[in-house]
Amino acid sequence: MLKSRIAIVLDRTDPRGTGAASHMILNSLESFNSEQFEYFFLTSVLGKISEKLTSSKFCVKYIKSSISEVSNPIQFAISVFKAIYWFKLSRIKLVHFYSDHYRDPFFIAAKILNLKKVIHIHGYSQDPKNAWLQSADCFIFNSNLTKKNPRFQEISEHRKRVIHYGINPKNYFFDPSFANGSKLVIGNVSAIHPAKCLEDFIKIAKLVNEECSVEFWIVGIVQSEEYFLKLKSLVKELKLEQIIRFTGEQEDLKQIYNCLDLLIHTAEWEPFGIIYLEAALARVPVIGNYPGGIVDIATDGQELLLYQFGDVEQAANLALKLMADSRSLKKLTDNFYKKVVNENSAEGFQKKLESLYLELLGE
After folding, report:
1. Alpha-carbon dihedral of residues 275, 280, 283, 284, nearest 10 degrees?
2. pLDDT (tens digit, 9 = 90+) per residue, 158-167?
């Protein structure tokens, strides 16, 4: 039996593969082995993400069209025609867009050919009122928080689905050989960007440091140099240079997670937060905040602890309480680990997607 062919369009603004969706895909390629579908990955940019996909067994197609070329109608039209030709040649039936940009040549080509189109909403940057996006057959949201955002109210309910991210448990595990010695380490794993509210993490560090000796790591790529300088200035102002470490982007997050004794996530309105799943699999206890999409799959006091966004004193008190209570710590990490393995694996995520593909294709 011939397999139906699915094109996966990756985010053209994320050539390094550090965004949540790209990161999830790169760490879960095994889940794309399917008896019903054949997958092709498409991208408009070259970078680390395309290099990793090229080294796998999946077909990766590049359509030359950078963001700067969007304003050049001739270059963009050429890119669209290339995409149309490739879709027809490859007999693609459905296109799943992880890209935030409706002016992607792949999207326009899919619309012209009247292919089934699925758009993954993993943030708030898409413009739901745009005519191109309105032509999609289905919108997948990574959490109910994202789905309920007023920006997406005009999308008809029958075209909305919530499918939580999943990751491969084999890629994240607890390894005591990475232990960080006797020094306790509290980490925040996220891009250095104002949306991640890392100034709150620094303020939490000050409060915790007044009670016990702890090291604090901020792990992630710098996406805003201005914001990075603001954070460093705050660290200096609070005299925390000796305990706060900016590690920069890290290739091996498994090693990072295994060095952490606690993860505190400070972002406001985090659509889902795949780092929660990664920490759970590495058995790192987690403190997150309200509101956040993670409440779809994790319960405060059962799998993690939650504080009200912006309340740094509450977050610091939770951290101190958790570090002093080994029984509660073990309960949280065990519960969250089991929850992610059983309900948020990459394989389970892919099965939910394939069920949707079958429905849309009428197969």
Report:
1. 40
2. 999 999 988 8
Peptide bond into 73 cis (omega under 30): no
Q: Which residues contact 40 (CB under 8 A, 6 or more apart)?
A: 5, 6, 7, 8, 58, 59, 60, 61, 90, 92
User: Using CB atoms within 10 A of its CB, is residue 284 exposed (0-12), middle (13-18) or buried (19+)?
Assistant: buried
Task: Choose among 154, 153, 155, 122: nearest CA to 137.
Answer: 155
> Is residue 81 within 8 Å of residue 319, measured between CB atoms?
no
Alpha-carbon torsion (78, 83, 88, 90), positive or negative: positive
Q: Is there a contact between 45 and 60 (Cβ–Cβ < 8 Å)?
A: no
Amino acid letter for position 242: Q
Q: Counting Cβ atoms within 10 Å, is residue 252 exposed (0-12), middle (13-18) or buried (19+)?
A: exposed
Total residue count of the chain as it appears in this document: 363
- Residue 113 token pair: 């050919």
Supply the mean pLDDT for the chain. 84
Strand 184-189 versus strand 92-97 pairing type: unpaired
Residue (of 93, 113, 110) closest to 39 by Cα position: 93
H helical segments located in 238-325: 253-259, 274-281, 312-323
Name residues whose C-beta falls within 8 Å of residue 130's C-beta, 6 or more positions apart in sequence. Answer: 102
The C-alpha atoms of residue 289 and residue 226 are separated, in whole angstroms, by 25
Q: What is the pLDDT of residues 301-323, one digit of tens each?
A: 999 999 999 999 999 999 999 99
